[in-house]
Specification:
GO terms for molecular function: 4 iron, 4 sulfur cluster binding; ATP binding; ATP hydrolysis activity; ATP-dependent FeS chaperone activity; metal ion binding. This protein is α/β, with parallel strands linked by helices. It has helices at 5-12, 55-67, 121-134, 151-154, 182-186, 196-208, 228-236, 250-265, 296-304, 316-323, 328-331, 336-350; strands at residues 30-36, 39-47, 72-80, 106-113, 139-143, 172-174, 177-181, 215-221, 241-246, 270-281, 288-289, 308-314. It has 2 domains: 5-80, GMP Synthetase, Chain A, domain 3; 106-350, P-loop containing nucleotide triphosphate hydrolases (Rossmann fold, 3-Layer(aba) Sandwich), CATH 3.40.50. Bound molecules: adenosine-5'-triphosphate (ATP).
């Protein structure tokens, strides 16, 4: 049986074109088709930027023509660049070098903030990151608390991050969490006096030059208050949402409100509030007492129209676990205290937030 060009074209028309979804003949990929006896030759013209992705298509094309009975098949791939659409006189959009950028490999960024210091923002960030990792998410934690970086201690990480090529920084990893902290760059206990531009440079470096790898979510532990770091983060990176941690007292809530206002101005969606230290659970007898009051954050969240993500009890184990380098979610995953964090993590995953 002698092969015809029509037979070959019909066989090739059964192969989908990766770029357009049409078949490769209809998409105009097949050029210069010649059939001489049982030898078939053709050229596959593919978009230059996608040439690698077409290797499989080329191999399939060869196989299909061979299956028709061709003794030799030569399918040569050539790359061309797709022509830019004609400029119809519209003004070009100005380049926006300063617009917030996507961090390479990172699907979502979630900032954890608090209006006031000491309310447990870092404890919540560390436990949330570990809880998300335990649920199988690829999690990163960036400790951007330039004034008091505590994540190296909380996640039990020390040492200086390596930079084999002098350009990118390799992050650290523990408890399933990929992490980077400003504390690792300056050394523990070293007081840091940051000037504005230095601080912005350091944050940008940690965001963009760290090899985060593929992450479903990067949690950013911000410094307390409504300062430069939060502003810089929102300017440099696309932040998908913010979580505000507060204790139930009025003063903390007042500051939390300022934090929410700031994110609203930055157009960062508020994922919700977390009430920390809401109920004190006695380590001896399990008696529950509301030392700082209870339900204040729930009421505030309702007033502001943002969700309450969860309530974390005040418990000695949460502090000792964090101080010991293995957050309670890792060291006592079945405890009621760990459960509170795990429920928040599960809720975030269910809503597609992490
Ligand atoms: N739910 C909790 N139960 C017991 N201890 C807690 C709880 N949450 C936080 N702590 C402890 O309170 C202290 C302050 O917490 P943390 O460092 O997380 O606060 P922060 O808001 O990040 O503070 P800052 O950013 O001002 O340094 C830590 O010693 C921590 O272990």
């Amino acid at each position: 049986m002698s092969l015809t060009a029509e037979d070959v074209q019909a066989a090739l028309a059964g192969i989908a074109d990766p770029a357009t979804g049409q078949d490769i003949v209809a998409a105009g990929r097949v050029k210069a088709l010649t059939v001489e006896g049982d030898a078939v030759r053709f050229v596959m013209e593919v978009p230059g930027e996608m040439a690698k992705g077409y290797e499989r298509t080329r191999a399939e094309a060869e196989a299909r023509v061979k299956a028709l009975g061709a003794a030799t098949v030569s399918a040569v791939m050539t790359a061309h660049s797709e022509k830019a659409p004609p400029d119809l006189g519209q003004k070009k959009k100005p380049a926006q070098p300063n617009a917030p950028q996507k961090v390479q490999g990172v699907d979502r960024i979630v900032a954890v903030a608090s209006g006031k210091g000491g309310v447990g923002k870092s404890t919540v960030s560390a436990n949330l990151a570990c809880a998300l990792a335990a649920e199988g998410r690829r999690v990163g934690l960036l400790d951007a608390d330039v004034y008091g970086p505590s994540q190296p201690r909380m996640l039990g990480v020390s040492g200086r991050p390596a930079s084999p090529d002098g350009k990118t920084i390799l992050p650290m990893r523990n408890h399933g969490v990929t992490m980077m902290s400003i504390g690792l760059m300056v050394g523990e206990g070293q007081a840091v006096v940051w000037r504005g531009p230095m601080l912005m440079g350091a944050l940008q470096q940690m965001l963009m030059q760290v090899q985060w790898g593929g992450l479903d979510v990067l949690i950013v532990d911000l410094p307390p208050g409504t300062g430069d770091v939060t502003l810089t983060l929102a300017q440099k990176a696309e932040v998908d949402g913010a979580i505000i941690v507060s204790t139930p007292q009025d003063v903390a809530l007042l500051d939390a409100r300022k934090g929410i206002d700031m994110f609203a101005q930055l157009k960062t969606p508020i994922l919700g509030m977390i009430e920390n230290m809401s109920t004190h659970i006695c380590t001896n007898c399990g008696y529950e007492e509301h030392i700082f009051g209870h339900g204040g954050v729930a009421a505030e969240a309702k007033k502001l129209g943002v969700p309450l993500l969860g309530e974390i009890p005040l418990h000695l184990d949460i502090r000792t676990a964090a101080d010991g380098g293995a957050p309670i979610v890792v060291s006592k995953p079945e405890s009621k205290q760990a459960q509170a964090f795990r429920d928040i993590a599960k809720g975030m995953i269910a809503r597609g937030e992490a």
